[in-house]
Amino acid sequence: MTRIDCDMARNEEEMTMLRDAKEWLSSKSPLVHTPHPKNGATPLHVASAKGYSDVMKILFQCAADIDAQDIDGWTPIMQLHTGVKEKLAENCCMGKRINFTNS
Predict the structure, then answer these.
(1) Per-residue pLDDT tens for 16-69?
(2) Would you list the domain boundaries of the chain?
(3) How many of the other CB atoms lie within 10 Å of CB of 57?
(4) Transmembrane ranges (predicted)?
(5) Dihedral class, residue 93 (left if φ above 0, else alpha if ψ from -120 to 50, else beta)
């Protein structure tokens, strides 16, 4: 039976996303806006849901859309845990208007 180190897998995913986000920023790639074909989630949805604040900062520099909706109508910011919302909004969003409700 193969054992998976969840912390290591999470860190590896975050570092991969961070590397990709930096590449997108330097190349002005449109991939930052590309939704997943099945669930409609953008890279910002994933970073927000997992609390990858360093990735979020770079995605905001890439002009990632904080109002983009996945197939369920959720925006990246709406996926944050309540205790994390304000801190990430303050540190990452650089003064952008954020809607924390699903309306």
Answers:
(1) 999 999 999 999 999 999 999 999 999 999 998 888 889 999 999 999 999 999
(2) 6-92
(3) 17
(4) none
(5) alpha
